[in-house]
Amino acid sequence: MAVPTDDADVTNASEPELRRLGLTTDTTLPRALVHKRAVENVFLTAVRDVSGSPVVLAQLPRMHRYFNDTYLPYYDLLLIGEVERQAVEAIAHGLLGVPDGARFVIRAMAITLDDLPVLRVGAEPADLVIKIDIERARRRRNGPLHGMVGRASCWLGGRRAAGFTGTVHFVSEDGYAKLRADAAAAPDHGFPPHDRPVTPALVGRRDAANVVVSDLTVAADAAWTRLVVDPGHPVFFEHPQDHHPGTAVLEGCRQTAVAAASAVLDVPATRLLVTKCSAQFSGFAELGRITSCHAALTGEDDGCPVVSTRVTQHNTTVAEARMTVTAVDDDAMPVGGKAR
Q: Which domain of life is it from (predicted)?
């Protein structure tokens, strides 16, 4: 049931106003609702239908072992992406009747950090208000929802901080089993022989455990890596997976793109942020196969380099991502002003 409100726009609502709408940060949503095993990886705290539109509340972590592993004091683009992924799952299950056992298969997504100063990590918790606009919903005849296209705006303190668009399919357990029936069995979930992650600072990370690429080669305006994701990683593999999860693939793209941009700009990777990302997934990145990533400078966006990345297995493309990389000066302010 939609919650009617005569209050000001929910994106600028005070905490008491949000509470009256049933949107609080008192506790996280049930972890199963957002397909998580570990509570520490659940960031949503409420989901409601407000005047006919889905609204989600999340609290962003400030000391997360992966999402805050950066040299720069900003909430991470892939954290926003993860929050949005959880929001889609919570809305689908909680408001749209998608069965609990359904698998979510993301086909395309785009994330933008619209205002870096707003996204700077501060002394107080950051309560993110997310408004969802479902542009297209596809249902089987007399059946459940099986696909959705939508966009979201993310607000902190009444200011728009980030945006998201995405296309997702909902697949039954039987349907997913058929979809994955032809996948070759991976011989091992460990690192391929001789592959070790690169030095963290070369890809903008502090913790070696969060480096997911090896064999880094940089030449002119391009970079090449191989994906090496630890199957024991507490975020990427916090529950069993039969393929490399999308977040790990995008992290590999991001790290490769940052390495390429670092060489082009002659700026340390520790001073670079990805502020825009658009991605398409054309297949599953299978475990146990050599997974390569290529990144190349392909343009500029408001003076910032745009890097196009491609992830392949056995010469077959499984994902592509286009990323805008922003350099940040020594005072931790974006060069040239806020991200656009």
A: Bacteria
Structure tokens at 150: 């939508």
Q: Which CATH superfamily is domain 183-327 in?
A: Hotdog Thioesterase (3.10.129.10)
pLDDT of residue 296: 98
Read off the pTM.
0.91
The span from the CA of 334 to the CA of 340, in Å, is 11
| Residue 136 amino acid letter | R
- Domains of the chain by residue range: 10-178, 183-327
**Where residue 4 falls among pLDDT bands split at 50, 70, 90?**
very low
**Per-residue model confidence as pLDDT tens digits over 83-117:** 999 999 999 999 998 998 899 999 999 999 999 99
Kindly tell me the number of DSSP H helices and DSSP E strands found in the chain.
4, 12
Spell out the long-range contacts of 297-303 with Cβ–Cβ below 8 A and sequence spacing 24 or more.
297/221, 297/222, 297/260, 297/261, 297/264, 298/322, 301/276, 301/340, 302/336, 302/340, 303/336
CA distances (Å), origin 208, targets 88, 198, 199, 245: 31, 8, 7, 19
